[in-house]
């Protein structure tokens, strides 16, 4: 079930990545994150990293076609960094192990 969830979540991000790399003017519509549901208690909600990648892709689609090639490539590189962070789930901080005292100590 987790794999189905990951496939469903990454479908929008993959479509956004394809649009940013092949059809930059169409990336704004493909990366639209206005309909994304964010619920802190729902495990099916999109992660912050993926949402950030979608927003970065939409910005690249909005501003990229009007920028010089060097600035456009910078926007695409920034999107690729956020996309990589979305695709590799973070391990999060480890819970510290603390020694406890026992009642008989």
Q: What's the short story on this structure?
A:
By secondary structure, the protein is mainly alpha-helical.
Describe the structure.
This protein has four helices and no strands. It is elongated and about 75 Å long. It has one domain (2-87). It has 105 residues and is an all-alpha fold. The chain has helices spanning 2-22, 27-30, 48-63, 69-87.
Gyration radius (Cα, Å) is 19 Å
Number of H/I helices: 4
How helix-rich are the residues, as a percent range? 55-70%
Number of domains: 1
Q: What number is the mean pLDDT?
A: 80
Spatial shape: elongated
- Counting helices, strands and paired strands, the structural category is mainly alpha
Number of strands: 0
Distance between the termini: 47 Å
Element order, helices and strands? HHHH
For the sheet with most strands, the description reads: none
Oligomer: single chain
| Beta-strand proportion | under 5%
Uncertain stretches: 1-10
Topology of this structure?
Elements: H1 2-22, H2 27-30, H3 48-63, H4 69-87
Helix pairs in contact: 1-3, 1-4, 3-4
What are the salient characteristics of this protein?
mainly alpha; elongated; 105 residues; 4 helices
């Amino acid at each position: 079930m987790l794999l189905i969830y990951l496939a469903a979540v990454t479908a929008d991000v993959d479509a956004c990545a394809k649009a940013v790399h092949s059809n930059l003017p169409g990336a704004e519509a493909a990366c639209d994150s206005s309909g994304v549901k964010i619920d802190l208690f729902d495990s099916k909600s999109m992660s912050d990293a993926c949402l950030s990648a979608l927003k970065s892709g939409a910005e690249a689609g909005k501003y990229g076609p009007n920028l010089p090639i060097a600035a456009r490539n910078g926007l695409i590189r920034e999107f690729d960094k956020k996309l990589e962070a979305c695709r590799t789930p973070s391990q999060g901080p480890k819970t510290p192990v603390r020694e406890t005292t026992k009642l008989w100590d």
